[in-house]
Amino acid sequence: MNIPPINLNSSIIEDDKQKTEAFNDYFASQSNIDDSNKLLPRDNTPPDRRLSTIVFETCVRPLLEYVDVVWDNCPEYLKAKLEHVNYDAARIVTGATKLTSLRLLLAECGWETLQQRRDKHKLLLFHNMVNGKTPCYLNDILPDQFRNIHHQRQKVADEKNISRIHKEKARLQQQMAVTEDEFSKISVINSAVREQLLGEQDKAFKMEESLKATAETLRRQVKDEMHTKSVLVARINSDSTDLVKYKKDTTQKRDKAQKVANEVQTAVTTVLTKVEKLRSTKREKTETKEKIRQQMVETEKQKEESRNKFMEQINNLEPHHTHLKDDVTKLEKRLDYMEWKTEQMNKQIHDMDREEVTFKKLVSNAEKAIVDLEERRKELDLQMESLKKIEDDLKKSYEEVLGRIRDNEASHRKMIEQRKKFLGESEVQKSHKLEINKELASKYRQLQNEHMIVKDKMMNNFDDRVKIEAQIKDTTQLQALQRRMHVAMLAYLKYRGLYNRSELDRMETETDQNSEQVQHLQVKMDDAIKQITEFLQTQVQGGAAAKRVAWGSVGKTSRGVGLSQPPSRQPTVVEA
Predict the structure, then answer these.
(1) Where in the sequence does UniProt note compositional bias of the Polar residues kind (predicted)?
(2) Residue 444: CA atoms inside 13 Å, Cβ hemisphere, count?
């Protein structure tokens, strides 16, 4: 393979060995390692060890191990600097101090030193080179004899591994057949036990359902009895409250009726006393009337007698007639007064009769009210008797309900005791069946564990094969990337050489142009010096006209020199 020449520090390198050394020096330079040493932070700032390890393994370590197979021949002090970067990373991840030993930090993090990782990378690369998994320019470096020896050894090892794998496969097939037979037997036993357990479970479930049904019926009966009890208690309470209220109302009504009766009685007594008084006054007045009537009769008699007498005497006593007329007028006046008095007394008697009628009406009304109150009292007594009968009936029904509840509770206790006995027997049977099931389950677990161990072994073998295939895929991808990198490096070196050549050609052309311009300037400077000397001579010898001519020529020459001066250029520097 031909690598194009390299322009390193303005020197062209064409030897392949010198080219590889230049590449190694470039990748293992002091500046790159110093830059790598500045990748980690100086402060212990990461919040989490796991996050810090992920950041280091994904962002920092790939930069430290980039093309480490090529630059592993760098000096030891540069390797120590890289190890110091790894040490700082471990210290930051663990949060340790600077005086902690590197071995303890790496052991705690589970890391390896960069030198160990580089050795492994070189071994892997060498293994790939031996097995032909690297590009051609790396495979061609190995000698043919070493490659043939390695292939023969690998072939012998592969044959041994294949024979061992076949033996292991046959042994595993025998074990699998034995385990399958045992598994079939155990499955038969397990199915029988499962059927028996299912039958027992069905029986227990049926018994449990029947017990639940009886319990539900008993619970419903208890609920109904409790409901009836609560209804009866509520009725008794309501009836008792109604009775209390009715008793209170009746007592209040009795008190009111008693008060009314007392008031009526007092009114009647007062009326009777008044009536008695009025009757006594009436009697007295009637007596006075009778006396007055008797007196009037007597007076009439006396009047008749006196009239007779007076008629007799008039005839006899006409002279005394005037005197007697006066007496008569006096008597008439007295009679008129007595008549007026009698009229007044008659009016009083008439008023007393009216008052007597009103008092009789009041007495009759009071007697009617007393009769009504007596009837209401009798009705209330009848209601009290009926309520007492209802209360007695409710008490009897309540006692009957309590007796039924006691009987139901006794029957319920008996049923619960029977169910407890049955439950104890079923639990004993269940514990016995569970012990049998545990023994069968332990045997099944042992067989299952053996099966899982065999399965794990086979899965581990399968995982190893998958890992090997993944490694093969990774190596193929790495080979493809290395090929692409090789092609890119070739193109880069090619274009770099062409660029260097073009730059050299440009610099040579610019130097030629600069030399020509310098020569032209030198000629013009010589002409200017000659003109200056001529001017000085004319200045010394000649007059003003000569001065003007000289100054004009000097100005022309100076303008020509300024225009002919080439532009300044920066020298170009080409680095490898």
Answers:
(1) 565-576
(2) 15
**Bridge partners of residue 6, in order along the sequence:** 13
Supply the DSSP symbol for 1. Answer: -
First-to-last alpha carbon distance for the chain, in angstroms, is 21
- Encode 386-410: b = buried (16+ Cβ within 10 Å), e = exposed: ebeeeeeebeeebeebeeebeeeee
C-alpha to C-alpha distances, 246 to 8, 195, 235, 240, 378, nearest whole angstrom: 129, 73, 15, 9, 15
Determine contact, residues 5/12, Cβ cutoff 8 Å: yes
Q: If phi over 0 gives left and psi between -120 and 50 gives alpha, with beta otherwise, what is residue 10?
A: left
Partner residues linked to 7 by β-bridges:
12
- Residue partners of 90: CB distance under 8 A and separation at least 6: 96, 102, 105, 106, 108, 109, 111
CB 94 within 8 A of CB 108: yes
Q: Which two tokens stand for residue 247?
A: 């008793």
Answer yes or no: are the C-beta atoms of 114 and 82 closer than 8 Å.
yes
Nearest to 80 by CA among 34, 123, 44, 126: 34
Contacts of 285-292 spanning 24+ positions with Cβ under 8 A: 285/345, 285/348, 285/349, 285/352, 286/349, 288/345, 289/342, 289/345, 289/349, 292/338, 292/342, 292/345
Beta strands 6-8 and 11-13 are antiparallel
Instruction: Report which of 205, 334, 330, 349 is spatially closest to residue 290, judged by C-alpha positions.
Output: 349
507: Cβ–Cβ under 8 A, 6 or more apart, which residues? 572
Residue whose token pair is 């200056």? 532
Task: Report the chain's C-alpha Rg in angstroms.
Answer: 75
Report the alpha-carbon distance of residue 96 to residue 104 in Å, rounded: 10
Residue-wise pLDDT for 256-311, tens only, equals 777 777 777 777 777 777 777 777 777 777 787 777 777 777 777 777 776 777 67
Beta partners for residue 12, in sequence order: 7
Residue 13 φ/ψ, nearest 5 degrees: -110, 125
Helix axes 544-564, 321-541, angle to 10 degrees: 120
Both tokens assigned to 349: 């008697």
- DSSP tag of 565: P
Q: Where residue 562 falls among pLDDT bands split at 50, 70, 90?
A: very low
CA distance 350 to 467: 147
Structure tokens at 487: 């092609």
SS (H, E, C) 232-276: HHHHHHHHHHHHHHHHHHHHHHHHHHHHHHHHHHHHHHHHHHHHH
Band of the pLDDT at 27, cuts 50, 70, 90? low
Mean pLDDT of the chain: 76
Provide φ and ψ at 44, rounded to 5°: -85, 75
Closest alpha carbon to 364 in 270, 279, 268, 276: 268
**CA–CA gap between residue 218 and residue 4 (Å, rounded):** 105
Looking at this protein, which amino acid is placed at residue 186?
I
Domain boundaries, the chain: 1-130, 237-439, 515-564
